[in-house]
Design goal:
By secondary structure, the protein is α+β, with helices and mostly antiparallel strands. The chain has a single domain, classed as 3-methyladenine DNA Glycosylase, Chain A. About 10% of the residues lie in helices and about 25% in strands. It contains 3 helices and 8 strands. Strands 1, 2, 3, 4, 5, 6, 7 and 8 form an 8-stranded antiparallel sheet that branches. The longest helix has 8 residues. It is globular. The N and C termini lie far apart (about 55 Å). The protein binds a DNA duplex through strand 3, strand 4 and helix 3. This is Putative 3-methyladenine DNA glycosylase. Keywords: DNA damage, DNA repair, Glycosidase, Hydrolase. Belongs to the DNA glycosylase MPG family. It is an enzyme of class 3 (hydrolase).
Length: about 200
DNA sequence: CCTGTGATCAGCT
DNA sequence: GCTGATCACAGGC
């Protein structure tokens, strides 16, 4: 039996928590599934929204751990992070992909799409499929509409560089459920095939 | 398989 | 004014 995560479960480095969240189950108003891809961001990280310090947008990252940080991406999508904290403020885990298990019909409706593989394969898609809105920014993850259930022990996790950033591009803070077909992109492939000259 | 581009806007310089 | 923790779709091979 899994256990409901508590704010104390988000005390630790963003990378540790991002890894531990692989295999956890996230539900928003009963809709969601198994988290299969995450990325870590923290204050010392040039790629992080929190790197330059607190602003109105990133305020949730500097607030209590175990809460949501929701931001607008490219003017279009809502993306969901879990706020965590080790020593300082400004750390979070981006939820990048989910294997849909709960409320498939609701997700298909919201996404206008049948293929379960594409319902939640990417942070913007997760936001749309789970009905993430800006009003959830700062909300506790252990209270409605959120529910986060701990992963089973010994989940196999793969690691690689993060996606879609231009700074700290080699930091290996992207985590994935090994072998999952619900990732936003495959893990661990070389960025370019080696030339066999 | 791959690359290119439009959508659309908040935050920052 | 430009950049972005993105996505969908078009076109070429």
């Amino acid at each position: 039996m899994p256990r409901l995560l508590h704010p104390d479960d988000f005390l630790g480095s963003a990378a540790d928590i991002a890894r531990a969240l692989i295999g956890a189950t996230l539900l928003v108003d009963g809709v969601g599934g198994v988290i299969v891809e995450t990325e870590a961001y923290d204050r010392d990280d040039p790629a992080s929204h929190s790197h330059a310090g607190p602003t109105p947008r990133n305020a949730a990252m500097f607030g209590a751990p175990g809460r949501a940080y929701v931001y607008r991406s490219y003017g279009i999508h809502w993306c969901l992070n879990f706020v965590c904290r080790e020593s300082g403020h400004g750390a979070g885990v981006l939820i990048r992909a989910i294997e849909p298990t709960h409320g498939l019909d609701r997700m298909r409706e919201r996404r206008g799409l049948e293929n379960p593989r594409l319902l939640c394969a990417g942070p913007g898609r997760v936001g749309q499929a789970l009905g993430i809105v800006h009003a959830f920014n700062g909300c506790r993850l252990d209270q409605p509409p959120f529910e986060v259930w701990a992963a089973a022990p010994d989940v196999p996790v793969s690691v690689g560089p993060r996606i879609g950033i231009s700074k700290a591009v080699d930091v290996p803070w992207r985590f994935g459920l090994m072998g999952s077909r619900y990732l936003s992109r495959p893990m661990g492939l070389p960025s370019k095939p080696a030339k066999a000259f």
